[in-house]
Amino acid sequence: MPVTQQTTETVEAQPLVPPIQLPVKRTRTDGPRRDAVLEVLRQEITMGRYDDGERLVEDRIARELDTSRGPVREALRQLEHEGLVVSYPYRGAVVLGVSEEEVQQVLIPVRLTLEKFSYLKVLERMDDADFAELAKEVWTMQEAAAANDLLRSVEADIRFHEYILSRSGQAHTAQVWRSIQPRIRAYFFRYGKEADLNRIAFEHGDLLQTLQSGDAAAIMGALENHITIRTPAP
Amino acid sequence: MPVTQQTTETVEAQPLVPPIQLPVKRTRTDGPRRDAVLEVLRQEITMGRYDDGERLVEDRIARELDTSRGPVREALRQLEHEGLVVSYPYRGAVVLGVSEEEVQQVLIPVRLTLEKFSYLKVLERMDDADFAELAKEVWTMQEAAAANDLLRSVEADIRFHEYILSRSGQAHTAQVWRSIQPRIRAYFFRYGKEADLNRIAFEHGDLLQTLQSGDAAAIMGALENHITIRTPAP
DNA sequence: TCCCTGGAGATTGTCAACCATCCTGGGATT
DNA sequence: AATCCCAGGATGGTTGACAATCTCCAGGGA
């Protein structure tokens, strides 16, 4: 499954023929290759197609995705910073499982901190266009709930929160979020099989409504409920 | 200022002379080159030798540190994950300043979350050797305070907390810490010029003592005081 | 004058081939 | 049984060459 085709190719240059070489650009603007590799790997790990502890060998992945080791190396580093992988010098990278306890007691509270801050920051700056954007995601969640589509629900959930994070323009907050988000995502997929999608959609609708009210205290409360409460019962 | 000398060199091979080539290994085990590059850059940024927004050009850095672009690229990515740098595709990396507000309202609270968790996790596992290790750092802080040496004090401070973090063996917690710690460090250097080093040393001594008592509630309280309180007055 | 276009130059992103360095897992030795 | 040694496997690093983009600025046209 090639990540993207070769960037440029010239038609087989026949030795003594006039240089008609038509450059066949298949490049398009799909951004750096490493990002494509990153997405593939992240998806595969998140969806559980790798076992915890399984090795990720640069050369193999490079061949599989039809690219060179460079982009693969960078993608692996990124995955390490997203906590989906651990690696030791000269020994390579292995898949790292998410422990329920750490997610509940560390990642979720950290996330709460981030969101509380950025919601406060973004409050005045939000206009109707922003709310419309968020409403769209809530709508998607409702659809996903109706279709019992966990994937779409989680994606919309993430986008909902990410929209506000990015809108708040707090560089460091966003940085921490990027590092935490993939793990939370992976966690939802693993332990969220029997999550109540309707409830998720409803909660976000409620959160959005509270946001529109502009009442800071109410927002903090809604956030805390929304983020903290869903403990998949230990 | 070369990061490290060439890995292996053979004595100038005189054309028609018997292959006496004595391999002059200067390698030693100083780990991956990227780490050396990383440390140099991190230090320079932390110490304010780069202005906020200043560009970090791969080629220039590679030449300055006498290495190739590979390790430099990896170091820059790492710095990005440490929040000391931001980069955009095809546009390169620039130094990112730490905003006091984000440190106070985001990074510090996040840090508190991490430490609370890991301290609880590590409680029973701590033995006298561990406490001795921590006592050593407290001692260093006292020394640094006496000499009014901010650098040494901050270093020992970081090591104190990092020791417990790593001792707790919580992979995800440690991951987040690694991403946050450099920024907090940089923050201390920038805004901590008139910090009371004696107070810092004392607080850690107190924290250590509380740790040895094994009283979980007391430890949480001490942590909260220690980490949260030092607001350099806005 | 102001806006738009089209390079030119600079820098990042990728490739490929090669070598150094380090880790791992036997097998032979003691 | 414990230890040492070695070969194979993988990662870390180098080089040189291109491809892909971005930035900026000079001209041209409205």
UniProtKB/TrEMBL annotation, chains A, B:
Alphabetical UniProt keywords: DNA-binding, Transcription, Transcription regulation
SUPFAM superfamilies found in the cross-reference section: GntR ligand-binding domain-like, Winged helix' DNA-binding domain
GO molecular function annotation: DNA binding; DNA-binding transcription factor activity
Domain HTH gntR-type stretches: 31-98
InterPro entries documented for this protein: GntR_C, TF_FadR/GntR_C, Tscrpt_reg_HTH_GntR, WH-like_DNA-bd_sf, WH_DNA-bd_sf
PANTHER family found in the cross-reference section: GNTR FAMILY REGULATORY PROTEIN, TRANSCRIPTIONAL REGULATOR, GNTR FAMILY
Organism, as annotated: freshwater metagenome
Upper classification of the organism: unclassified sequences, metagenomes, ecological metagenomes
UniProt name for this protein: Unannotated protein
Tagged with keyword ATP-binding: no
